[in-house]
């Protein structure tokens, strides 16, 4: 019987009174009289057959029963308010949480986001970046863009594109690089994937040098590129993700040889049903990737 015809006014009166520990201040907030708030709380107590407040000469003291009810009501009212705020112009706004490798996010995705927003103005995209290590469930992500072979436990992965790696260096360093073998005399900036330079040298037809025992190692191409920009060495990074740097002449790609050690994928947990916003982003991203 309690579940039917919930007395929303009475529940709101109780919640406001519990926050203020005062019927008077609750009445001011709700724009009603103090007597109306007191009467609504009494009706709720009668309906639930419990005492929610101890009436004191100066204010209220909430009972154990009231303390048990209060957080549930607060959460419910907050969730209702959040949902109502998402309605705009006859549409409901959907929140979409996407995680992405930092290099992909900054170098490729962000410049294209205005096109997604123009097509889907009622999707609120929340973008977080990572270094390709992500826990979608723990981070509450709807989707994640990852780099690798597409095999991640418990996920569905849609292939986007490859982004071959190639040496990138400042113009000053690039002037010294006449042929790929000249790289052997330079500081080679490395990622945590130790075999990338070896793969590139093999693609260039050069006997791969022994892996460096010393030197800088980075967990993202963004950090590696910053080091290259400061002249610390030659970065092995995807030129596709650094088109702005290349167009501005900040870095140079001295050789066209590239090596693909993985691809970018859009992933979703198999346990996470696809929402309208997720589908919209997946379709849009696939269209953009087809022109990459």
Helical/strand content category: alpha/beta
Order of helices and strands: HHHEEHEEEHHEHEEEHEHEHEHEH
Span of the ends, CA to CA = 60 Å
Q: Order of strands in the sheet with the most strands? A: 6-5-7-13-8
Could you name the ranges where pLDDT drops below 50 across 5 or more consecutive residues? none
Strand content: 15-25%
What's the architecture of the largest domain in CATH terms?
3-Layer(aba) Sandwich
Whole-number radius of gyration?
29 Å
The biggest sheet amounts to:
5 strands, mixed
Number of discrete helical segments: 12
Number of domains: 3
CATH topology of the largest domain: D-Maltodextrin-Binding Protein, domain 2
Percentage of residues in helical conformation = 40-55%
Number of strands: 13
* CATH top level label of the largest domain: Alpha Beta
User: Please, what is the average pLDDT?
Assistant: 91
The general outline is elongated
Mind telling me the CATH superfamily name of the largest domain? Periplasmic binding protein-like II
Explain how this protein is built.
The structure is a single chain. With 292 residues, this protein is an alpha/beta fold. The protein has 3 domains: 8-85, Arc Repressor Mutant, subunit A (Orthogonal Bundle); 91-161 and 263-289, D-Maltodextrin-Binding Protein, domain 2; 166-247, D-Maltodextrin-Binding Protein, domain 2 (3-Layer(aba) Sandwich). The chain is 40% helix and 21% strand. The strands form 4 sheets. The chain has a 5-stranded mixed beta sheet with strand order 6-5-7-13-8. Strands 9-12-10-11 form a 4-stranded mixed beta sheet, with helices on both faces. It has a two-stranded antiparallel ribbon with strand order 1-2. β3 (87-88) and β4 form a beta hairpin. The longest helix is centred in the first third of the chain and has 22 residues, at 64-85. The protein is elongated and about 90 Å long. The N and C termini lie far apart (60 Å).
